[in-house]
Design goal:
By secondary structure, this protein is an alpha+beta fold. It has a single domain (2-155), classed as 2-Layer Sandwich (Alpha-D-Glucose-1,6-Bisphosphate, Chain A, domain 4). The protein has five helices and eight strands; from the N terminus they run βααββββββααβα. Strands 1, 2, 3, 4, 5, 6, 7 and 8 form an eight-stranded mixed beta sheet that branches. A hairpin with a 2-residue loop joins β2 and β3 (45-54). It is globular, with a radius of gyration of 21 Å. The two termini are 34 Å apart.
Length: 212
């Protein structure tokens, strides 16, 4: 089964800062719920894993990532990922993502993905896969935006106390800032997805009856 996704998400950082996240596969992977890079084969090939939690059970997928293109001029990433679990299900995704600048403090993440799913997960059908994708990508975009905002703060020059006051004396050294915990997506829980789909189903059902 194939699912085609075209998405746009606002990013609370400028395109330059957001590009430092998009171009870094290790940082980008942790935006995806339950995903991580397990090894770097070379500059364009990686291995990784994704964990999906269903109540007390955890399904693990192992796979590979290949960067097809990384263009700083257009801030565009093209990549393909392939993975499989022990139960025989497999999936592949070819992704093109780029950043569109809005102003110094914001941009838009634009993505086009073609996802092919085989095995038991293909039995859920296109509607279910679309709902799964929307929920996962919404969390991905939220974490991406947070990481980009952290990168933007790091890129902004810090004005010295003497420059701000006009004094020539060297300012006292500022106390080092406390280290921030890394921004990482939470592990995806399929039970939460199922409950959201059930609520959406009944909301649409009763909404249709009221409008009839």
């Amino acid at each position: 089964m194939e699912v085609v996704l075209d998405k746009q998400y606002p990013v609370a950082a400028g395109a330059e800062a957001a590009w430092t996240v998009l171009a870094n596969m290790n940082e980008l992977a942790t935006c995806m719920p339950g995903a991580q890079i397990t090894s770097e084969i070379d500059a364009t090939h990686f291995t990784g894993s994704v964990r999906v939690k269903v109540g007390p059970a955890v399904a693990a997928f192992a796979g590979t990532i290949e960067i097809l293109a990384l263009d700083p001029a257009t801030r565009t990433l093209k990549m393909i990922g392939k993975g499989a679990d022990k139960g025989g299900s497999s999936a592949s995704m070819e992704l093109t993502a780029n950043l569109v600048a809005i102003d110094a403090g914001s941009c838009t993440l634009v993505g086009h993905a073609e996802v092919i799913v085989n095995g038991k997960f293909a039995q859920f059908g296109g509607r279910m896969m679309g709902s799964v994708s929307d929920m996962i990508l919404a969390q991905f975009a939220d974490v991406f935006s947070q990481k980009a905002a952290v990168a933007q703060a790091a890129l902004q020059p810090v004005a010295s106390a003497s420059a701000a006051s006009g004094e020539s004396a060297a300012p006292a050294a500022a106390a080092p800032a406390a280290p921030q915990a890394p921004v990482v997506a939470k592990e995806f829980n399929a039970l939460g997805l199922v409950w959201a789909l059930i609520k959406g189903f009944f909301a649409n059902l009763f909404g249709s009856k009221r409008s009839a």
